[in-house]
């Protein structure tokens, strides 16, 4: 069996002239970093009949092979150029969800040098231009919009039907020569998720894709030596699913099996496809992991089918809470021979900044910088901001039709806005850990700063498994108040939640940590109002703005004071 992670990984510390300490991986970035389309062409030649991607169909899954994907992409490229007048550098914006036709369009854009812009579906759901769609269209400036068959944008925005485009190019032939491409050419535009602010367009270059995938394969040799098989539901309008995952599959000659978003109504089909294809890696956000465990923890047959060839479960290390971590670790210990890995990234870094150099010991581990990259921890008002430099960093933002520089410091490091710490594992290896989002911090009226991320993490651990999320408020006020989103297990146990918070206050009595009053949320966060990101996480700043009256009522004596049992 191939190695899971490259052996002997170390975190190398260097000191800049001004005394700043920066860190890099001991693993080198490979010298040869071919274009992603060259990787596709390689696999199309050596394994033309190998399934690249499959999708759900009417009672049977449909699939496309490497050879067919390249042929159809080149035919679609020719159609886009000849019938729609697209030239290298033109933008094609798409509303298409993950699937075969969406893949062919993505690859056609690479073949023709067109810039593929993945639009989020929700603002465009009604199919016409509005204030909600304007920021995305102004940023991307598409020459062509492509939408799924039957989408209202086909009529309301003169979008081209992807089904018709795919059908028209199905039987076509095209020259094998693709457009000349350079690493600095833009390949795609993705939009930031809006977890901490207004979404911004981020251009992704072809060189960013190559460095990202080369670095991942160098740190995690199992991905290259055992072609990845993914059963994947992550949306393609996010850089995680629509760039990193699908290109990880193509880079390493693997297969992606597109799945429906996890829910009680879809998981039976998910279990069947997992049993059929035996995934080698499972990549998910915490919300998906929770639903996966809900389904598999008490079904030994389904769990065995899922883990038969599984090498790793991967999640973004910044987002998992303590109770979910315990469930995941227990599942690992009970099923199969796989490990838990994590990482940390951003749209601005083509998805990935750090990855685990070894299987995780606890939640919150972010790992080591990708090969070829450097990470700095820079003091910001008593906390350390994670900053990164390297070939993965995007050239700019796209905002209101203009290119806007990324927030870079004087040393050329991208300022992530996230706080980090350097932690020591039990094996002695130092790794970066997540310490919250700087944008969520605020000050009480006393001037004392509240570190919202660590506070929320601590409260969530204290209340586990009775709370799914907690929103904390108190900016410019004398005390902290909180709104608790109870889990299914905690909805009828407000007394126990109150006792848990009282216990937290006893151990953390400072004004910047103790919760003076709290209440239970009566409705879930509303995605249509920007309160819930596509990752399933509450956007705290947006929720606080939208529900200011709730928190004012708590400050005025509403809800209840935490009381011990």
UniProtKB/TrEMBL annotation:
Enzyme Commission designation: 6.2.1.34
Record's protein name: Feruloyl-CoA synthase
PANTHER family: ACYL-COA SYNTHETASE, ACYL-COA SYNTHETASE FAMILY MEMBER 3
ATP-binding as UniProt keyword: no
InterPro entries: AMP-binding_CS, AMP-dep_synth/lig_dom, ANL_N_sf
One family name in Pfam for this protein: AMP-binding
A GO molecular-function annotation: trans-feruloyl-CoA synthase activity
Record-annotated AMP-dependent synthetase/ligase domain positions: 41-398
Keywords associated with the record: Ligase
Keyword Cell membrane recorded: no
Similarity remark: Belongs to the ATP-dependent AMP-binding enzyme family.
Enzyme class: ligase
């Amino acid at each position: 069996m191939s190695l899971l992670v490259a052996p002997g990984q170390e975190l190398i510390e260097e000191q800049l002239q001004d005394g700043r300490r920066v860190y890099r991986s001991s693993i080198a970035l490979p010298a040869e970093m071919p274009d992603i389309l060259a990787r596709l062409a390689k696999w199309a030649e050596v394994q033309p009949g190998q399934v690249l991607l499959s999708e759900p169909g009417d009672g049977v899954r449909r699939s496309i092979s490497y050879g067919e994907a390249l042929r159809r992409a080149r035919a679609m490229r020719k159609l886009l150029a000849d019938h729609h007048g697209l030239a290298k550098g033109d933008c094609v914006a798409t509303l298409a969800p993950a699937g075969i036709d969406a893949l062919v369009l993505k690859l056609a854009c690479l073949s023709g040098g067109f810039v593929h812009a993945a639009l989020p579906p929700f603002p465009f759901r009604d199919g016409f231009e509005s204030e909600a769609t304007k920021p995305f269209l102004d940023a991307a400036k598409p020459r062509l919009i492509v939408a799924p068959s039957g989408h209202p944008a086909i009529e309301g925005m003169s979008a081209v039907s992807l089904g018709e485009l795919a059908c028209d190019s199905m039987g076509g032939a095209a020259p094998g020569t693709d457009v000349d491409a350079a690493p600095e050419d833009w390949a795609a535009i993705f939009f930031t998720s809006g977890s901490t602010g207004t979404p911004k367009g981020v251009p992704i270059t072809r060189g960013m894709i190559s460095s990202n995938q080369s670095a991942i394969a160098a740190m995690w040799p199992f991905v290259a030596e055992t072609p990845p098989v993914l059963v994947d539901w992550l949306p393609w309008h996010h850089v995680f699913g629509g760039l990193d995952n699908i290109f990880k599959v193509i880079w390493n000659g693997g297969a992606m099996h597109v799945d429906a978003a996890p829910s009680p109504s879809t998981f039976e089909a998910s279990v069947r496809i997992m049993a059929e294809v035996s995934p080698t890696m499972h990549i998910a956000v915490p919300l998906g992991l929770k639903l996966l465990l809900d389904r598999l923890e008490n079904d030994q047959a389904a769990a065995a089918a899922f883990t038969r060839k599984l090498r790793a479960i991967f999640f973004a290390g910044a987002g998992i809470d303590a109770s979910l971590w315990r469930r995941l670790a227990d599942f690992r210990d009970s099923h199969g021979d796989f490990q838990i890995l994590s990482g940390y990234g951003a749209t601005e870094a083509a998805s990935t900044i750090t990855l685990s150099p070894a299987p995780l010991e606890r939640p919150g581990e972010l790992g080591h910088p990708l090969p070829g990259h450097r990470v700095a921890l820079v003091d910001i008002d008593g906390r350390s901001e994670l900053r990164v430099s390297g070939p993965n960093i995007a050239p700019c933002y796209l905002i209101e039709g203009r290119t806007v520089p990324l927030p870079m410091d004087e040393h050329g490091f991208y300022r992530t806005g996230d706080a980090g710490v350097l932690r020591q594992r039990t094996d002695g290896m130092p790794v970066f850990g997540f310490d919250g989002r700087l944008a969520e911090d605020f000050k009480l009226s006393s001037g004392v700063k509240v570190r919202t991320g660590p506070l929320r993490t601590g409260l969530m651990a204290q209340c586990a498994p009775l709370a799914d999320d907690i929103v904390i408020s108190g900016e410019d006020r004398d005390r902290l108040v909180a709104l608790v989103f109870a889990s299914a297990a905690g909805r009828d146990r407000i007394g126990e939640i109150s006792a848990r918070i009282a216990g937290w206050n006893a151990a953390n009595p400072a004004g910047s940590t103790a919760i003076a009053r709290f209440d239970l949320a009566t409705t879930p966060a509303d995605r249509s109002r920007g309160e819930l990101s596509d990752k399933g996480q509450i956007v705290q700043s947006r929720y606080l703005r939208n529900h200011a009256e709730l928190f004012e009522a708590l400050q005025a004596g509403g809800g209840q004071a935490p009381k011990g049992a």
